Every structure is written in C-alpha cells, then in structure tokens.
Amino acid sequence: MPKVFVNYRVQEQSGYAMLLHRELAQRFGLDNVFLASRSIGPGEDFVQGIHSSLRQCLVLLAIIGPRWLESGGRTIDVSGFAADHDWVHWEIAEAFARGIRVIPILIEGAELPGEASLPAPIARLARCQYVRLRHHSIDGDLAQLVDVLRRAVPALDRRAPEPVAGRLDPLYLHLAHTPGSQCRIGIFPGTIRRVRNADIWVNSENTDMQMARYTEFSISAIIRYWGSTRDVAGRVRHDLIAEELDAAVGPNRPVAPGTAVVTSAGALADSNNVRYVIHVAAVQGEPGAGFRQVRNIGWCVTNALLQAERLAQTDSAVRTILFPLLGTGVAGAMIQTTAHDMLLATLDYLTQRPDTLLSSIFLLAYSQPEFAALDSVWRTLPLRPAAALASEESA
To answer: What is the DSSP string of 326-368?
Structure first.
C-alpha cells in the first residue's frame, strides 16, 4: 500500500499534483505514492480506493495553492455524501484523526490558512510545518521535499533513487528501411529547460488554447514563463507567448482536437535558441474532472510536423523540432501508449515525406519511466540506432 498520499484540488493545483506523483514515484516507487487520478483504475470503486489508501499511508501531502480556500467548501461529514462534501478537507481530517503526519505543500506565494478560516476537524493544519514549491526553483524545492520525506518516513529510503534517464545525450534513431534518410528521430532525456538544439518546441495545450498559469508546473507553464520577459525578481512583465497565442486563436475557441497554432518563442529565443512554438490541442477539459488526452494523439503529431515543414520552407534556420509526451502530464494519459502512438505517427510522417527539410525530430523523456517507454517502443518499430546503422553501412 502507498506510504505517501497526495491530497489536492482538481480545479486548483492539478499540475503540481501530477508533478509530485511523477517525481516521488520515480524516487520511491510507483506503489509508494497515491494520487487518485493515477492510482485508481477504471471500474474500481473510487470511495473504497480513497479510504483504503488513506488508512494505510504514513504521510499526507496537502497541496495548497493561492486560492485553496476559495475553491473548497467547509463541509466534511461524509456519512450522507452530501452534494457539498469536500473530499480534500475530509482526507486531511481523516489523516489527523488517524495520527498520520500531514505536510502542507505551499505552491508559489500561497500561505497557510489561519485556524479561524478552517473547519474544526482540520484547524490543526494551520500549525503544521510546510514545504514550499516554486516554479523558478522547482528542482531544489523537490529535492528538499524528498529529503523531508526520507527523514519522516525511513521506509521510503529502501528503494534507491533512479537517474532521470541514465544519460545526458540524446539517443538518435534512423528509419531502418530508408537508411539514406537525412532526418533522425531523437529521444532527449531530462527536463525541457536543458534543451538548446531544437528550433521548434511543441506545446501540449488544451482545446481552448489557453496556456497554463506560469505558477503551475507543466510544459505549457514552463514555455509561458520562460518565454516571457521578466524583471530582476523573476516577475513576469510581458506575457509574450500567451498574448500572441490569444491573438492568433481569437474568438475561435474551442478549437478542434489536434489543431496546431504557431507563435514566436518569445524570450526562449535567447535562453534556449528556440525560434517558434507550435501549440497543439492535445488535451480536453471536462468540468469537475480536469483534463484528458484527446483520442487521436498521432494526429496531433502529424499536424505539428506539417506546421514545422511549412516553417522550414520559409525559414532556412528551422530544421529541428521537440515534442514532449503529449497529454501525459496534467491529463494523466498512459505513458507507454502515448510513446507508441507518437513514435508511430513520426515514423509514418517520415515514411511518407522522405524529402522532409527537417533534420531531427526529438521526443522529450522527462523521467525514467518516459525514457523506458520510448526505449522499449522504438525496438518494436522499424528503427535502428544511428551508430548501429552507420556500422552496418560501413560493413
């Protein structure tokens, strides 16, 4: 049973909840971290899953954003499952009642709510020592949280942490049946912030084409924040990419799934050598349930590559493009299935366009599970490592 229970509001900080689940599962093992949207499978009893996991966890992480109080009710009694029942409050109250350690996770500039503003069963939350997560220092803040959890729950340390992907350099692949093709497929390990050799970044966006708040943690938020101009304190002064995307889409929201819209790269041009951002509608929102991946993720890849081809025809400096695994973050899509569909769509595109102007198509493997999924999927497709292919040709 999971040792860490992630408590959050779907409407408030789902991006950070997904991030915590992914990072902590990578370090401590998937079975040791519970997140309802990821840990309860289709057809399983949601209420039973929450109750049984909460009863056996050792620590509850209460994710609190700037509007945590505004977006929640105060009703905690679940005996009758009233319409205004607040699961977030109930989970915290249950943790306190069972003597489970509760650690508030304050997002960005959020503050602990005062005792007077909380229902009596969770008033103790106002006195709990917290950990803060901020987008501009996320790596250090996550490391601090991992250390806190290791000290608070020694049993978590039985599993040695894995490297992000076991390597720093990209793994390059070629189509096996067309060895003369000039375009490579690259699997790039690690965070998108260290990528500086991709002319185009693909942004996984929702069908409303509204970028994530730059205080969240997602590809959309990273692109929005680092593409903006900021003052010396890191505060956004000009929201360049989001404003350009808003102007490009205008009143045409929501767009069809798979729609790809091009904007400039804003300040990313200086920091990461990015020339353009292609925003692709890869997730759809559902009221009260958050986001889910669109049905045909391969179509998203194809449309983005077609836009990239057009850019390459008009801009001779454009030759490389980077995709994250679309819809596997906040939308919670399966990593293995997404990796397969995206690699297959890329393979189909290159097979049908052997004369493409693109020289490299990168897929980002942010975590070890993402790298492992991409690494296993390409082996089932007609692809070969670039080094191995060169050896075969020379022989």
So the answer is: TTSSTT---HHHHHHHHHHHHHHHHHH-TT-S--EEEEEE-SH
Closest CA relative to residue 110, chosen from 21, 12, 235, 239: 12
* Amino acid 390: pLDDT: 41
User: 3-class SS at 186?
Assistant: strand
Proportion of the chain above pLDDT 70, given as a percent = 87
What's this model's pTM, rounded to 2 decimal places? 0.66
Q: Which amino acid is at 103?
A: I
Answer for the pair 24, 149: CB distance below 8 angstroms, yes or no: yes
- H or E stretch at 383: strand 383-385
| Residues 152-200 pLDDT 10s | 888 776 544 444 445 568 899 988 776 556 899 999 998 898 899 999 9
**Count of beta carbons in the 10 Å neighbourhood of residue 58:** 18
Backbone angles phi, psi at 284, to 5 degrees: -125, 140
Q: What is the pLDDT of residues 27-82, one digit of tens each?
A: 787 788 998 877 877 778 878 888 888 888 999 999 999 888 876 554 444 443 33
Secondary structure of the chain: what % helix, strand, coil (to 5)?
A: 40, 20, 40
**Ordered structural domains, the chain, with CATH:** 4-158 (3.40.50.10140), 171-394 (3.40.220.10)
Tokens 């409303």 sit at which residue? 208
Q: Give the residue among 286, 285, 328, 320 at the shortest CA–CA distance from 304.
A: 320
Nearest by Cα to 323 from 169, 187, 154: 187
Cβ neighbours of residue 60 under 8 Å, at least 6 residues apart?
4, 5, 7, 54, 91, 92, 95, 100, 101, 102, 103
